[in-house]
Amino acid sequence: MRGALRALFGGRARRRWVHLILGGALAMPYVLVGSVIVGPFTGVDNVFGSLPLQLGSFALGLPMAALTSLFPLTRPLESAAVRALCGVEGDDALAHGPARTRAERARTALWFTLHLGFGGIVAGMSLAVPPFAVVLIVLPLFARLRRTPLALPHALDHSWALALSPLAGLAMLLGLAACAAGCGALLARWAPALLGPTAQDRLAAAEARAADLAVRNRLARELHDSVGHALSAVTLQASAARRLLGTDPEFVREALAAIEDTTRRTVGELDAVLGVLRDGDAPDAAPAPTLAGDLDGLLRRTRAAGQPVTATVATAPAALPALVSREAYRIVQEGLSNALRHAGTPVAVRIAVADGRLEITVENPLGAAPAPRPGGGHGLRGVADRVRLLGGTAHAGASGDTWRLSVRLPLTTPTTGAAGATTARPLPKGSV
User: Would the keyword Transferase be found if you checked this record's keyword annotation (predicted)?
Assistant: First the structure.
């Protein structure tokens, strides 16, 4: 019983009732226009004095409502009303924008017609039924009401009819509530089909979300690689400068200059990334570093931090494709960052081209075990993502007494969407 009462008079049912009343209010101008047509056609001056003529005016008004629903704002306004009043769950269940295709406009016209049709009927019943039902309920208590037109005096000549009139009044109110609840439930059920996005809309939204996620992941990798490497280098440079402050002023000056250069470059990259996050586009942002543009600077700043680095470059970085050169720079940077944070021993970097692939190797003797970090590191995971997107392979781990990061990148971009185009092997979790 409680569930039935909630279905008829609960908060959701009342909101849907309000939605239907709004539909009836929207239908009134069309009914008035229909009455202007019905009146002269039938020769009746007072169309609203006849229920059949009222229904005829209502029937003529609905096609006009369907035509006016083709205005662009109809669909988003109706969708907003359904979200607020009909209890349709899911933000993506209903479309946000105007109808664009012929099928969408046809569904919008059908929905608007149903809303105004059901709303007009329920609104008319809501105006007519409650007064009549209240008279029936209180009729046994007031003898004077038994001679009013609303009381149907001829039907109340029998005492049993008079006794049952309150029950009849309550039944009419329950029937009105049931009609409103049923119409509201039907509209809520049909709303996603008539006002919801099409399959093409859902596909476009999914592609937009995927593209946004890809951009965010790329920006997260850029932040990790640039800021993480800079912080590691600056920490070691500052530590070395502090230890030699009183004994080697020249080294201290070089370390401070390296810190200044590192932080200036990192702030520029950070501004570029934040510009993309803030504005969605950063046309004036500094370009991402590449092997051709900054490999020498990367090696110089790493050596200034006190890390011995030997580099063998057996190819011309300027001849590499821009995308490969950019990702290769970040991979080398991550390999050097690992050595700065964990090894503290000489690092050997080798970059060469063989069999149409760019080969990158970063090696250093195994030092102290890395300090554990909550959730593990993200550097080598980012390397694996970069390599996978380019269709290359990556391996990282201990080989004897040497830690080796080995990456092979194709010099041509893999075909987008090809199944199995990427073959990056997952790197050991927590290695960074």
Answer: yes
Which of 259, 270, 269 has the alpha carbon at shortest distance from 294?
269
Does 284 share its domain with 373? yes
Confidence category of residue 368, pLDDT binned at 50, 70, 90: very low
**b/e code 338-376 from CB counts within 10 Å (16+ = b):** bbbbbbbeebbbebeeeeebbbbbbbbeeeeeeeeeeee
- Over residues 220-269, the pLDDT tens digits come to 666 666 676 677 677 767 877 787 787 888 878 877 887 887 787 777 77
Give the chain's length: 432
- Residues 306-359 have pLDDT tens digits of 778 899 999 998 889 888 998 898 889 888 877 777 655 788 999 999 888 999
Do 231 and 356 sit in the same domain of this protein?
yes
Q: How many domains are there within the chain?
A: 2
Q: Write b or e for each residue in 150-186: b if 16 or more Cβ atoms lie within 10 A of its Cβ, otherwise e.
A: ebeeeebeeeeebeebbeebeebbeebbebbbbbbbe
* Cβ pair 338, 432 in contact under 8 A: yes
CB 274 within 8 A of CB 223: no
- Other C-beta atoms within 10 Å of 118: how many? 22
Q: Is 120:22 a contact under the CB 8 Å cutoff?
A: no
Q: Are residues 188 and 244 in the same domain?
A: no
- pLDDT tens digits along 109-148: 999 999 999 999 999 999 999 988 988 888 777 766 666 5
* Residue 218 identity: R
Question: 68 and 10, same structural domain?
Answer: yes
Q: Which of 262, 386, 288, 287 is nearest to 331 (CA)?
A: 386
User: At a CB cut-off of 8 Å and minimum separation 6, what does 105 contact?
Assistant: 70, 99
Q: What is the DSSP letter of 342?
A: I
Torsion over CA: 80, 185, 203, 70 (sign): negative
Report the CATH number at residue 323. 3.30.565.10
Is the separation of the CB atoms in 47 and 35 below 8 Å? yes
CA–CA separation, 161 vs 197, rounded Å? Answer: 54
Helix ranges, 321-429 (H): 322-338, 379-390
Residues 222 and 156 in one domain: no
